[in-house]
Amino acid sequence: MHQPDVLLLVKETLSVSPLFVDLEADFHARVPVVICKEKKSGLICKVSAGNENAFQTTSYLSAIASREPLLLLLVLGFRRWAQICQIDRAEEGGLPPYVFALMVIYFLQKRKESLLPAYLNQEVCASFHLDPVINKTPGISLAFCSMEINPSI
């Protein structure tokens, strides 16, 4: 199935779902998406197909969320606050939704008593697989995992 077919199927499926409202599709965007709003929370959801970066980000967030049950609740609460303050609209100069998740993750990693491991901690790497093709920066391997801590960072 090709990207346009997948997005049309997603749009069709969401249009009959009672959980989502304000369904739109932007097939002419740099990254074509189907956009909807989750009815209960009012949070915006953007679905793309064939976007490897989005897939990798989602895989990481899913792996890290499976380690800490509070993460999802904190992210949803933070995103709701950002929506109320109207700072969650990237297209209007605000921040994209995943940024709020990354801020919560960073906070939970940097607490005095850390609730989450650092980004490429061995335990996270076991459930999160980076595609080496994604890494186009010579000399830097994002797929490498190490338990070493560099005190100069």
Brief rundown of the structure:
Helix content is 41%, strand content 12%.
Summarize the structure in words:
The structure is a single chain. It is built from 5 helices and 3 strands; from the N terminus they run αβββαααα. With 153 residues, it is of the alpha+beta class. The chain has 2 domains: 48 residues, no CATH class; 67 residues, no CATH class. Strands 1-2-3 form a 3-stranded antiparallel beta sheet, covered by helices on one side. 10% of the residues are buried. Pfam families: TUTase. It comes from Acanthochromis polyacanthus (spiny chromis).
The rounded distance between the terminal residues' Cα atoms is 45 Å
Proportion of β residues? 5-15%
Looking at the structure, what is the overall shape? globular
What structural class should be given to the helix and strand makeup?
alpha+beta
